[in-house]
Each structure stands twice: as structure tokens, then as C-alpha cells.
Amino acid sequence: MTDKDTTLRFDPAFDANGLVTAVVTDRTGALLMVAHMNAEAIAATQASGEATFWSRSRQRLWKKGESSGNVLRVVELRVDCDQDALWVIADPAGPACHTGARSCFYRRVDGGALVPLA
Amino acid sequence: MTDKDTTLRFDPAFDANGLVTAVVTDRTGALLMVAHMNAEAIAATQASGEATFWSRSRQRLWKKGESSGNVLRVVELRVDCDQDALWVIADPAGPACHTGARSCFYRRVDGGALVPLA
């Protein structure tokens, strides 16, 4: 057990790029998407109540739904033992995936093949 | 939409360290842990049916439960749109967290404080 495991102080363990992993599910536990947050994105998420990430490809703050309107309203934020991952429980206003799928996880892995989920 | 979004070929988008993010939930959608897999870990997971990760801290292949016995039996493996994250749906043989908690996410974030979950 380390201090990160037991502390009641929120002290994210950012990686070399200043990021933690952010996992988004809805209230039922359906995994919607995985993205990353830096300190600024965490602060924006907490202030607005809508999930905001750091876009690694665009290298900028990215509020989910800023263009599509499909925001993720935060119900609860949780952190893992070593504080390098966040669990965002959210009510999605629409599809979470840029493909239009409800979840980014719309294919299961079967060996080297992918099978679309019903 | 890109080829990664639509292909039915499993072609993980490894990062500069050769890793993808692996999110583990149980069948109910409870988020148990977040870790990383390299190609070897994915192959071991698929071959054994038990979740195997790449330990970044120890820089070695790490079968979850190898010492504790708390293995994660894989029910289904899913991949996200851009294939840089995996969703491992698993039956846990015991606590997923090294602290003894069922899930690594045993604290919610309230501003700058953490609140233990019941």
C-alpha cells in the first residue's frame, strides 16, 4: 500500500505527457469511450460538469460534444488506487463515438478478427 | 471514418511504447481496473483466457493473479473504434485491486478530496 492508495487527497499521477487515462461509462456500466485528461481537462470537467479531455491528436483541450452536441454529463468521478486512471460515470446526450455508435466498443475480438456487436 | 474504425481485422494501434490501454469490467459493468497490454500480453490473454498485462513498473509480462490467485477469466474482449483501447469483460476470481478492494476504483472525487465508496 502506498500513499496514493490510501490518501483522501485527489492527487492525480500524471504520466510523462501530463495525462491520466479517463474511462467513461454510463450509469449501467456500459463502457462508452476511453480518452485522456490533463490537469486542465480535469478542472474543466469538474467546473462544467461535462466531460472534457485532452486530445492527443489535436494537442488541445477537447470538450466531448463541443461540435456534435453529444456531451457527457458527469454523474460521478472516481479515481483508481494509484491515481493514474479516472472513471467518469456519465449521462451521454447522444452517441459517444465519432462513428455514430453509442459506444466506441462496437466490435468484439475473435482471434485476429473483429465481429460487429448486435 | 478511418480504416481502423471499420475494418473487421484486429489490428491494435500500439503507442510509442508498444502498448494499448486495457479496461477491465465484470459482467455487470463494474469497472475493476485499468492496465496496459502489449502484443505479447494480448496473445497470452487470448491463448490462456486469463487477463495478462504488461507491467510498466516492472517491465515484464504480468498475468493478473499470478501470485494472489485472483485471476480474471475473460468472458469477452472488445476493441474501440481506433483500436488503441481494449475492453476486457471478465469474471474475477477475487479482488481485482492489490489493496484487496474488489475494484481499484474505491474512492470518488469530490473537488480536491477523495471520498471512500461504501
TrEMBL record, chains A, B:
Its EC number is 3.5.4.19, 3.6.1.31. Pathway: Amino-acid biosynthesis; L-histidine biosynthesis; L-histidine from 5-phospho-alpha-D-ribose 1-diphosphate: step 2/9; Amino-acid biosynthesis; L-histidine biosynthesis; L-histidine from 5-phospho-alpha-D-ribose 1-diphosphate: step 3/9. Pfam families: PRA-CH. GO terms for biological process: L-histidine biosynthetic process. GO terms for molecular function: phosphoribosyl-AMP cyclohydrolase activity; phosphoribosyl-ATP diphosphatase activity. Residues 33-106 form the Phosphoribosyl-AMP cyclohydrolase domain. Signal peptide: none annotated. It catalyses: 1-(5-phospho-beta-D-ribosyl)-5'-AMP + H2O = 1-(5-phospho-beta-D-ribosyl)-5-[(5-phospho-beta-D-ribosylamino)methylideneamino]imidazole-4-carboxamide; 1-(5-phospho-beta-D-ribosyl)-ATP + H2O = 1-(5-phospho-beta-D-ribosyl)-5'-AMP + diphosphate + H(+). In the N-terminal section; belongs to the PRA-CH family. This is Histidine biosynthesis bifunctional protein HisIE. It comes from Sphingomonas abaci.
